[in-house]
What does this fold into?
Amino acid sequence: MSLSTIMTNYFLRHVQVMLFSLGQLWRQPVASLMTVTVIGIALALPAGLFVLQQNMTTVSEQWDDSNQITLFLKTTVSQVEGKQFSLDLKKWPNIAQVQFQSAQQSLSEFRQLSGLGDLLDSLPNNPLPAVIIIYPAEDIVSPDAIGSLLARLEAMPQVDQAQLDMEWLQRLRSINKTIHRGISILAILLSLSVLLIIGNTIRLAILSRQSEIKVMKLVGATDRFVRRPFLYTGFWYGLLGGILAWITLMITLGVISGPIDELIGHYGSNFDLQWFSVNMLTSLPSIGVVLGAAGAWLAVSRHIHMIEPN
Amino acid sequence: MIQFTDVYKRYPNRYEALSGLSFHLNKGEMAFLTGHSGAGKSTLLKLIALIERSSHGQVLVNKQNLTHLPKGKIPYYRRQIGLVFQDHNLLHDRTVFDNVALPLVIAGENHREIGRRVRASLDKVGLLGKERNLPIALSGGEQQRVGIARAVVNRPAILLADEPTGNLDPDLSRDIMQLFEQFNKVGTTVFIATHDHDLIRTLPYRQIQLHQGRLAQREVE
It folds into this structure.
């Protein structure tokens, strides 16, 4: 027999076993579907959270260049003085651009954004300060440089408070990082449970076919031959679970994308949600297959060699 | 073909199933293994099929010393032996064809060769028309024929049978024995454990009789 014939035979045998395993799942549709669903949910949960978290990262990256400084002026500073102060600041070499906003403008902006107009009308005088927004020069990017600029501005007599807008962004990023890590741990735990679910399902399948395995070994089956269909069963569980996870994710995100778009609309953001990246379609089933095969391997390596004819 | 030299088999509970057993079966011979239940017949067959290993002594089968055969080689060794059981050991969720094909599938034969040899084998046992049936749809005698077809499908040098007629009536038993004789005539070494004395009395083959794990003196030619 030539090498190519041997290879063809080997390949054909694997395809046969693969289809045989799929057929066995098909013959027990309810039990198989339950296992696949559990796997699907366990994979969809972390994947869905990852999608949300990824989008959050995209949003925060859009604001990457917004390291502007907001100066809240003292209320004792008049509008003219404030305007003049902003023009003075513009001459500083490490400031690229300034934007003055009078107390009156602050008030009307707040009225427009908050919708609390009636409440503001009832106040005796304007509680909001005038604001100067400062865009540092392009070469002022390091935290140290910005920090020293901030300190100098804060020391000016007209300034009540200087606030670096990066700060809340950094806070957002820390939160984001924490969430990311949390999701990673969740993903690891759920992957582990997928592994064990498949391992246990395969273990039960092996035990229920004990007498069949004994017969096969009596007529000369190697351990490798006996375990092959079980490994492919694990493969199918993982693959189908992964595909189901993707479908679940698509449906879930489709359902919540409306409200989320609305939420983002309120913040006046201009970005599009990126839900269904193509690699989700390939990565979820791939992860499923790896976990399925590994779980099955766990079961067959422990049980197949222990079942011997007697 | 099969040679036992001073073979002992002790079980962990100190029970000695075989004690100092020696005998020799020639190539192409057909012989019966007789004795009361508990005399060690099944143990002896298990040693030949390497389901068990001897505690002491040497078992040679087809020029291979089973004492030193590594575990990984056992499957390949078993492919040289056809096994027939009292309770058939068929797979009940597979057709007659698939049951008989199993040893060939395991050995990695190609599709066409499997079809040809399974049909030839079923033809020999007279079940050619039933290849699509499930074993459950067959009578006891027919199921045993399927078991025999499976045992001979990869043309083993040795055919071992453990009480193959144990559950069958005398007529069916005679048919089954005739089948074994046919395989023996084409050169297969046949070794049958049985306590069906009425049946084998009429047949001209050697009897190896066990008594409490030893060879009984009476060896009938």
